[in-house]
Amino acid sequence: MRVDNITLSLAWRNLWRHPRRTWLTVGAMVFSNILLVFMISLQFGMYRVMYDNSLSLITGHLQVQAEGYIDEPRIRSTVPAAGGLANALRQAMPANNVAVRAMAFALVSSAERSFGVQVVGVQPAYEPGVSNLPGLVKQGRFLNASDERAAVIGSSLSRNLKVGLGDELTLFGSGRDGSFAAGIANVVGIFESGSNDIDRSFMQIPLTDFQEIFFMEDQAHSIVVMTPDLFELEPAMATMRYIVDADGLVVHDWDELQPGLKQSVQADMASAWFMYAVLIVLVAFSVLNTQLMSVLDRTREFGIVMALGLAPIRLGRLVFLETGIMAGMGLLLGVAAGSAVVSWFGFYGFTYPGLEEMSARFNLPGRIYPSASFASLVWGPSVVFLACLAAAIYPAAKLLRLQPVAAMRAA
User: Which residue, 37, 78, 290, 375, has fewest beta-carbon neighbours within 10 Å?
Assistant: First the structure.
């Protein structure tokens, strides 16, 4: 839409003929933009916490596995020389945390009961860097590098087996070579992850003990990697694929390891945008009301200038331009104020009663920090801007059907 200086000057002067009405309309835009910027940034921050909570429990951000292991986790599908490969990854990616794991299903027996559980062999020195499970130990302690025949189990499994700290467990399973595998372990720690499925069917022992019990030699089932930033995995993946360049080994990212996680976030975002849409529609109706009142107030004036030869299309442009100026002011002021609010909460954090207690239970931070990005700062205000322009269509369209004589007779 071509706009000349005269039209721009008229639009600006028309807005300030009723400054209170103009500022009320701009204020509604600014308020909605501040709210959208803050809520979207807070939502992204909560998603980061959700991702970290879900991925740091077991999965990690990236994993090296044998090809096909992700679909069919068999004990024979192993990563050869896993310890050496993990050391190579640590040297190539010093900013990342790397740990080796081995997993098998086994029958675990106490003096009174037996249950089938997933036994995980971990490196005690490196596991805290890729998992928050060591921080969830409520009784006893996590594994040490010097431990032998030690185990950390879930609270539900502890109750089911009727065992406590210091009690002995017996493991029975199948070794990598198909032979009978058996071993013993003493309970040194009991964790509470908040997930009943994990607490009742998960057990960790030192990787060296696992390899001895299940005849793994120097092999494992996965090398888990945690990067400093979840959303910047590409460099780490490229480095890992270069180092891991071997037949039968693949690198999986978190989306492949937990495909349902992104889908749940997308579903939550869709429901949130429905609520945002309601707010945007209310603002658009506010703009529609303001511009419609403005057009009705100036009907006689418009009739006079049309009688003097001004084309109705130019009056429509004038109404659009007035709306665009208000929407632009609302966008700029809203983004500026919203950025300040997000920056403040991004430094001090956001919390509400009960959040810190609940977060401490899951070894998570007690405050949520809004995640500011170009998308979170621009998405909402841009939609408000477009919705306001769309709201000006009806008032502008009324001018196209306006008859000069009838308009000049209007009261």
Answer: 375
- Who contacts 61 (Cβ-Cβ below 8 Å, separation ≥6)? 55, 225, 226, 227, 230, 233, 236, 253, 254
d(CA 368, CA 359): 10
Q: What angle do CA 219, 253, 223 make, to 5 degrees?
A: 20
Q: How far apart are the first and last CA of the chain?
A: 32
Average of per-residue pLDDT values in the chain: 86
Question: Across 189-193, 272-276, 315-319, 352-356, which has the greatest mean pLDDT?
Answer: 189-193
What percent of the chain stands above pLDDT 70? 94
Alpha carbon distances (Å) from 268 to 43, 61, 261, 264, 265: 10, 21, 11, 6, 5
HSE, CB side, 13 Å, CA atoms: give it for residue 1: 14
d(CA 109, CA 117) in angstroms, rounded, equals 10
Task: Detail the DSSP E strand segments found in 192-332.
Answer: 202-206, 222-226, 249-253
What are 77-89's pLDDT values in tens digits? 999 999 999 999 9
Instruction: Look up residue 28 and give its two tokens.
Output: 């509604």
Q: Which residue has the tokens 């022992």?
A: 205
Cα–chain center distance at 359? 17
* 56 burial type by CB count under 10 A (0-12 exposed, 13-18 middle, 19+ buried): buried
Question: Which residues lie across from 117 on neighbouring strands?
Answer: 106
Within 8 A by CB and 6+ apart from 375, the residues are 40
Which class for 393: exposed (0-12), middle (13-18), buried (19 or more C-beta within 10 A)? middle
pTM recorded for the entire structure: 0.75
Share of the chain above pLDDT 90, in %: 39
- Is 35 in contact with 224 (CB distance < 8 Å)? no
Residue located via tokens 């956001």 = 350
- Residue 369's SS3 state is coil
Residues 206, 101: Cα–Cα separation, whole Å: 9
* Domain residue extents for the chain: 5-54+261-408, 62-226
